[in-house]
Amino acid sequence: MRLLCLAGLAAGAWAQTAAGDRTIATEVTISAVGFAPDGLLAAAGSDRQVRFWDAASGAFKRSVPWTKEDGSAVTFSPDATLLAATGPGGIVKVWELRHGEMKHRLPGHAITPNSIAVTRDGKQLASASRDQSIRIWDLPTGAARHTLHDALGETGRMAFSPDGSTLVVASNDTNLRVWNTATGRLIRTIEDLKLTTFAMDFSRDGQWLATAGADRTVYLWETRTWRLARKITGQPEMISSLAISADGSKVATGGFSELTSRQPVKLIIWDAASGKPLRTVDAPHRVGGLTFSPDGALLAAVAGEKAIHVWRAK
C-alpha cells in the first residue's frame, strides 16, 4: 500500500489560537489521534487516511490510506506506529503505519467489535464485541491467544498495562475486571463503582490506573493491590476521555453532555497528586480522544468535528 501526500485542507491547516495552542482544520471528521516517538502527530480521518504532522511546527508530513469499509472502532497503538480498526464480519485489521502496509486481518467475532486496545510494545491486541467476548491476539503472528467472557452489559473500555501483563476491562455492568494476559485468568473484579466507566489510562510506570465515566469523577487505582488511592472531582460533565502524561504528574479529562454530543464541554488538565485543576479549556463538542505528547508539553484532542485541537499542557 503506497503513501499519499495531500495538500490544503485535506492535509490540514493550522490555526493559532491562544498562546501555544493550535487547531488543525481538516475536510474530514477525525476519529483518533496519537503521538509517534519521532514527535509526529497522527490522526485517523473518516476518509480512511491517517495523516501525520510535525507537532512543533505544524508542517504536514505524509498520509497513509487504510481500507475504506472499516472504521466502526479505530485506535492507535500508544506510540502511533500501528492502527487497528474494526469492520464488517467481525474482523479487526491492523496496519503498520511506517510504510502503510496491512499487517493482519483478525477474524473470530460474531459481531463487529466495538472496542480495541493495543499494548505499548505493539505485540498484543485486545478486541471486544457485543457478542460479549473479548479476544487477545498475538500481533507478531496474528494468532488468537485467549477468549475472555465479558459480563452482562458488554465492554465499554479496555486498557493494557504498560508491560502488557494485564488487561483491564470496564463493562457496562459498572465493574472493572483485571485479566492476566499470559494465562487468560481473571485476577480481580473491582465492584466499587456505581456508574459506567467510559475512559481509562495507565501511568507509564504501571503503578496507577485512572478510570472515569458517568459520575464525573476520576478514580486513581494503585495497581499492586487494586485498591482505590484517591479521587479527582470537578469535571462538570460526564467524562468521555482521559489521558495521563508520561511523567505521571498530570491527568487530562474531556467531557460530554447527556443531552447531545454537539454540546460544548470542558477539557481539564489536573495535577495528579493534589487533584487541583491546572488548566481548563473549552471543547466544541464531546471529547472522543485525548493524548499527551511524549514530553508532556502538548495535549491533543478530537471533539467530533473536522479538526484536531492541540493545547499547551505545561
Structure description:
The chain has 314 residues and is mainly beta. The protein has 2 domains: 13-31 and 196-314, Methylamine Dehydrogenase, Chain H (7 Propeller); 66-191, YVTN repeat-like/Quinoprotein amine dehydrogenase (Methylamine Dehydrogenase, Chain H). The chain is built from 1 helix and 29 strands. It has one helix at residues 8-11; strands spanning 13-16, 22-25, 30-35, 40-45, 49-54, 60-65, 74-76, 82-87, 91-96, 101-106, 113-118, 124-129, 133-138, 143-149, 155-160, 166-171, 176-180, 186-190, 197-202, 208-213, 217-222, 227-233, 238-244, 250-256, 265-271, 277-283, 289-292, 298-302, 307-312. A 5-stranded antiparallel β-sheet has the order 1-2-29-28-27. A 4-stranded antiparallel β-sheet has the order 3-4-5-6, with no helix packed on it. The protein has a 4-stranded antiparallel β-sheet with strand order 7-8-9-10, with no helix packed on it. A hairpin with a 4-residue loop joins β3 (30-35) and β4. The radius of gyration is 18 Å and the shape is globular. The termini are far apart.
Give the topology, please:
Blueprint: H1 8-11, E1 13-16, E2 22-25, E3 30-35, E4 40-45, E5 49-54, E6 60-65, E7 74-76, E8 82-87, E9 91-96, E10 101-106, E11 113-118, E12 124-129, E13 133-138, E14 143-149, E15 155-160, E16 166-171, E17 176-180, E18 186-190, E19 197-202, E20 208-213, E21 217-222, E22 227-233, E23 238-244, E24 250-256, E25 265-271, E26 277-283, E27 289-292, E28 298-302, E29 307-312
Antiparallel strand pairs: 1-2, 2-29, 3-4, 4-5, 5-6, 7-8, 8-9, 9-10, 11-12, 12-13, 13-14, 15-16, 16-17, 17-18, 19-20, 20-21, 21-22, 23-24, 24-25, 25-26, 27-28, 28-29
